[in-house]
Amino acid sequence: MPNRLVQRLDRFSPNGLRFELLLGLGMRSAGAVSAFAMTWIVARMFGAETFGHFQLALATATILALIATQGLDRLIVRTASATFAKERAGAALNFFVHARNRQLLVSVPLAITAWLISEPIAVHILEEPEVAWHLRLLAPAIVALPLIKACSSLLRAKGSVLVSQSLDGVGYTTLAIVVIAVVLLSGSAVSGLSPSIAYLVGVVLVAGAGIVLVRRAMRFAKREIGSVQLASGLFIAAFSVLVALNDWLGLFLLTAFRDAAEAGIYRVGFQICLLFTLVNSSFALMAGPRLATAFDQGDAAEAWKTVRTSSAMGIAIVAPLLLLILFAAEPILSLFGAEFARGADALRILAIGQFINVAAGPAGAALTMMKRERAVLIIEIATVIVCVGLLLWLLPTYGMVAAAIAAATGAALRNAGALLVLRRLLAAL
To answer: With 70 as the cut, is the pLDDT of residue 24 above it?
Structure first.
């Protein structure tokens, strides 16, 4: 009996997979709480229409930032984890510098382009002029967000999990809430642009903090000058961008076919379902280095065990949340304002889709760590084609419910494809 107890406790030791999964989940949960709090504050203060303007601009800036990131954050984790394990911190630093510079070469032009095209898109396509002002304010975030991800990834690869996760998500959202709170407490007039201003302040401050933390962490490392291979990051980026594009298209087309208010209501449901997403994303991030090591050693059993453990823990965590949403969607949405309750059916569908995402475990991340980015990309291309077809077919008639159906269908197709490919690859090891 004592031996069994010790074995169970060892599973949650600081060096164990379960401990890392729970630690990562804890940090991501803090970020989700911050995001939920900001969503609630903005929705309650400004209503569905202004919230829709802010969220569409933020989603646009985020997808452009993903393009600028180029999947290099994943490559930093994959490459730097191995070089740190071999005590070659200089090689990890060299890879980081190359990746950061590559990101800047793309992010700066994208931010300028977003600024320039914001008005034509907002006025002539969406007929929502306010969106242009939000997008202009958030344009610098297109540069800052990739930088945050690069710094966070290097620190994660080095083993600084708490610091890494504090940067990516929880940090800038919390600061944005603080900025809004300061404005309210000061008695100053609150503008509809306040959410974008606050978010920008948070992102810029955290990006600066990330640079400082990386310099401190690598102050004793002597950079090993040499060429690095960054091309495979483009396949990873293509997958991430397509996933985000799927979500962005639903929001964009909903605004275009309906209005910003309906898009805002839908986006609140989407934000609530980030509680599911944070489980999947944090587990995938924490399991990444273990999966990379297992594949490098040809240990299929360990790789599959990591995926199954992540899946089982994820299901146990989110199952109660799924039941709560299915039976109490209206009261949950009413917390944001009475007008949001009409998005209950869309929220239920989104929750089912995200539960499927969690239940599949880090299948997509596993394929990435196996250097099968092409397979992940092919799966996502097929998924986007199906989802765009559903959006164009159903959205004009069913509005936010159609957007939710497309999102849930995408989650099911993406994860089913990833699991099938993963099982075949592991069987061949």
So the answer is: no
Band of pLDDT at residue 291, cut at 50, 70 and 90: confident
Distance CA 420, CA 428 (A): 13
> Chain centroid to CA 308: how far?
22
Report how far apart, in Å, the C-alpha atoms of 146 and of each of 56, 62, 142, 396, 415 are: 19, 10, 7, 35, 26
Residue 239: other Cβ atoms inside 10 A: 26
Residue-range domain boundaries for the chain: 47-230, 234-429
- State the distance between the two ends of the chain, measured CA to CA, in whole angstroms: 36
Which ranges in 191-340 belong to alpha helices (H)? 194-217, 232-257, 260-272, 274-296, 300-334
Instruction: Please check whether residue 166 is in contact with residue 27, taking contact to mean a CB–CB distance below 8 angstroms.
Output: yes
Phi then psi for residue 218, to 5 deg, are -110, 20
Cα 65–Cα 234–Cα 112 angle in degrees, nearest 5: 30
Displacement of CA 135 from its chain's centroid (Å): 19
Question: How does pLDDT run across 100-136, given as a tens digit for each residue?
Answer: 999 999 999 999 999 999 999 999 888 899 999 999 9
| 386 neighbors 409 (Cβ within 8 angstroms) | yes
pLDDT at 284 over 70: yes
From residue 189, how far is each of 7, 129, 137 by CA, in Å? 59, 21, 18
Look up residue 124 and give its two tokens: 């002539």
Task: Name the DSSP letter for residue 123.
Answer: I
Q: Check if the beta carbon of residue 165 is closer than 8 Å to that of residue 27.
A: yes
* Residue count (the chain): 429
By C-alpha distance, which of 338, 381, 374, 44 is closest to 233?
374
Q: Check: CB of residue 280 under 8 Å from CB of residue 315.
A: no
Burial of 241 (0-12, 13-18, 19+ CB in 10 A): buried
Which run of H or of E encompasses 158?
Answer: helix 141-158
Measured from the Cβ of residue 426, the count of other Cβ atoms closer than 10 Å reads: 18
Pair of tokens at residue 370: 């196996």
129 within 8 A of 122, measured Cβ to Cβ:
yes
Is 286 in contact with 20 (CB distance < 8 Å)? yes
pLDDT tens by residue, 336-387: 999 999 999 999 999 999 999 898 888 877 787 777 778 888 898 999 999 9
Closest of 411, 414, 104, 73 to residue 237, by C-alpha:
73
